Amino acid sequence: MKNHLLTIVFLISISLPQLSPAGEDDVHAVVNGVEFSTAFIVRSNPTPLHYWPKSAVSKKLEVTINDWLVHQHAVEGGYDKEPEFQQLVEEQESYIANKIRETLGRDYWANAYLEDSAQGRVTDSALDAFFTKINATPTAQEKEDMRTQFLVRYVRRQQTRRMQKIFEKVPVSINDKLVPVANLSLEVETKDGVEGGFRSNLLAAAGYPDAVLHDSAVRVKVEAGLKTVTLTVGSQKIDLGDPVHDKLRDSLSVAANINSIRNILATEMVLQTHDHADIEDLRTQLIRQLLRGYLYHKIGLVAETIDISEDELSWFIEQKPEKFQRMRDQDGEEQARKSVAKVMVDMELKEAKRAFIDSLRETAEIEYP
How many CB atoms lie within 10 A of CB 35? Predict the structure, then answer.
């Protein structure tokens, strides 16, 4: 029986979440009269899409309360109105815009995976019907292996369809040459290069149309050639020669695969189709992150204010002599001591922030329904 099943399935070992969305109106806490509902917690964290499992809401509750209390303290102290902070926001506009784009694309695919996994679950009756059709009697493990195989195939198929729908909305050009939607769609369907598709156009633009990328020497040449290439994905122009895109350029030099830009593609689609109020929520939360960091700087809760004495450093090292010895063997005495001192600073800073937040919590009215 086992050998018979192995001829029709690939055994895949993956863990898939069993999650259900928390109700948007569920109230998890009330802080100073403000209800921390699921919707409020989602809006208060840098993620624009609204499928959150109950477990995630529970884990984020206390962090959200703490961040909210710190933010309220900053606002009540007028830190958000200070010219220095306003200038900081202006200087960080590029960071904020890039972070929004990064989050939109990443969260689109994370939520898509959760949705497709939930929709693609195979029932026991469907599995029984399949095994009856092939005249097989599986073990419990073989049955679960088949369930996983069906689910993986379904999720992959759905992700391909999602990419194909994105191509219909988001044009892709390489050095201002538009890649036909039909070619992109076929390329992601076949998971192979297509003449006139993304891969062939990209390698041609890099100067190596016939490159064999499993050859590391060839990849080095392609990576250099890609520095002359500009991708246009929707409204976003990506100069692959810009150091900010080093990671993307490296990925494209390895496989020249359209999936390397799938987060960018998703971002462009979301910007076209998603509720801009949600995107503004994300921007608000990123600015709140900056405000919390600015507050910590103003009240001295930063690493620069913490001084580790030689006696403290020596005592800490004595507690973990074997670990320090390994660090010293690898990096030398001076660098090892600097690394340990940094760990100690991080620990003290974390504890100082914890004490500050605890003081805010002590004066706040926090109720858990």
Answer: 15
- The predicted-structure confidence for 311-363, as pLDDT tens digits, reads as follows 999 998 999 889 888 999 998 999 999 999 999 999 999 999 999 999 999 99
Residues 232 and 103 in one domain: yes
Q: Considering 278, 299, 320, which residue would you say is the last residue of a domain?
A: 299
In terms of Cβ atoms closer than 10 Å to its own Cβ (0-12, 13-18, 19+), residue 140 is exposed
Residue at a domain's end among 299, 318, 344: 299
pLDDT digits (tens, 9 = 90+) for 260-313: 999 999 999 988 876 665 677 778 888 999 999 999 999 999 999 999 999 999
| Assigned domain for 34 exists | no
Backbone angles phi and psi of 10, in degrees to 5 = -105, 125
Print the domain residue range for 91.
1-15+41-51+59-299
Contact of 61 with 42, CB cutoff 8 Å = no
Same domain, 333 and 248: no
Q: Burial level of 269, CB count in 10 A (0-12/13-18/19+)?
A: buried
Beta bridge partners of 232: 173, 237
In angstroms, rounded to a whole number, what is the distance separating the alpha carbons of residues 87 and 68? 23
